[in-house]
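Sequence in, structure out.
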Amino acid sequence: MKNRTNNNSKRLLKGSIRNTFLFIITASILLSVIFGCSKQKKKVVPKSPVCIRSVPEKVNINLISHNRKLGTTPWQANLVKGMYVFEFTKPGYQTTWKKISTNPPSREDLEIKMKPITAAVIIKTEPPGATLSSGKRIIGQTPIAMQNIPLGAHTYSLSKPGCSPREITVLIEDERPQIISENMKSNIGSLTVKTNPADANIFLNDVPRGKTPAVLKIERGDYNLRIQLPGYSIHKEKVSVLSGKISNVNVNLQELPGSIKVVTVPENSTLMVNGKQYNNTPTTLKNLKPGDYEILVAHDKYDTTTRKVSLAAGQDLTVNISLDTNMGGIDLIVHPPGVTVYVDGKKMGLTQEGETKDLSKIFEVRNLKSGIHTVTLAHKRAQPSIKKLKIEIKKGQIRRPKQIRFWIKDTYLKLNDGREFTGRIAQENKDEILFEPDPTMKIRYAREDIEVLRALKEGE
């Protein structure tokens, strides 16, 4: 009985285990089916890459079609298929919108160029015609219209001759146009300049402004005044001119001393000025007052000369004086050269060979006083050996008598028969010579009869 009970218990246990195992297997199959079906039903949604860049960067991006803020450029994301509307904002720039439609898997690249907010400005002045500048850049003349002025504060300069310069600041806060009017106040004053003597040159800050007396209408301010007149010291001073006021300058100009330089021909002449003797010429007299001066110049063998001159203030005057000689002279031409010349017994020199060997150069005798002078010409081999002339000399006169001819032995002749002669050759050719042993005789000799024919040596 007990064994039967145990067998029943074992059968029941085995059945229970089998049922539990079948349950687990069945549950596993069911879960596998359920979860397997679930994975098969899930789908992958395609998307398009979208990349947005901007100039400038850091632009705010709003996706207004989906009411979302996306951040700032540069920006990129993957978007499903659809329509998107973007809004781009940045302080100082105009708002920009952009609509795109994505169609996966195509890529969308956007580059947004933001336009700055600008405004137009008209600047007017009273009076018109003022120069508008920004730094060193000249923009134009008022009235002037300027376009595309960016946001912010902008400083400009206004200037016009005769008006005080102005600086203005234009504040651009939005795109609304502005009209700015400025009143340019006059800054003109008067400067009266008088000098003694008048007609002096006026310079203000080194710019010529006419001659004295003068009334100058100029802008207010400080000026360097310079007054110049030839012959007078330069006057300098600083002057201030006020708007609507008159400034006066009265100057007594100081005379500059002058100088007189005296140059004479010949030099080393005696010099007297206004009766006072100075160093011989050339010489310069300095620190002279303006006025009239009498110059007297004297030199031996020359006429005394007087010259009157007027010296202006500050003038450097040069006086050139050529003295007239009170002497005379003689020009001699002697045939042949080599003759000794004496004047009034004084040896003057020897005549030199000129264009030909038979004719001398001009022999000059100078500085002869007026009157009659004795000219002696001598040559030891001449016949006669001495010739004398009486020549009258007048002041400044150069006398030239006719050519003076000498008969001078200059040739030695020896014939084949032994005879010897001294004399001169009157004529000659290849066959014969015409020989003069003295001034009164001429003898013809064939060259075949001549043994020696030569010039006389010195001392023969």
